[in-house]
Amino acid sequence: MDERLPTGIAEEPTEAEATAGPHQWPLAERPGFLARRIHQIHVSLFAERCAAFHITPLQYSLLSVLRDLEEADQTTLAGAVALDRTTTTGALKRLAARGLVTRSKSLMDRRAQLCRLTAEGVALHSAMEPAARLAHALTIEALTPKEQEHLTELLRRVISGHEHRRGQAIIE
Description:
Elements: H1 15-19, H2 31-50, H3 57-69, E1 71-73, H4 74-80, H5 85-97, E2 101-105, E3 113-117, H6 119-139, H7 145-166
Antiparallel strand pairs: 1-3, 2-3
């Protein structure tokens, strides 16, 4: 087995894989394809419901984390939204330019940028939360409440399994 391949991926295809025709693995059975489609659907619903606020899903996630933590450095925020620091920093700069977030040097570590919601940021987050929650609900509305909970739990388990293997922080 090739050490560079993920666990469970053989270097050589099995006989069934080697002889399979091009249409024997429909897109609708591929987890990666399905994950991309559900993401597209959710982003579209979020854009429709939250358009008036001019906030992206990533920016909304950052506002939500800051609402919960009150203050956090950019590295903590990047981990909380499962993105790299560069992307997170860019999003925070755009939020700061709109007056929704303040960024200041930490007194404990001058290299760290501490972020907080401004009063405008708190107000905007509160105003858009019902629309954002509706977008999330509409994303999975085809499922029963029990199925929605089950789907969320399964997604957490998939993410957790990959993050444990890679030594990354787990999304809580």
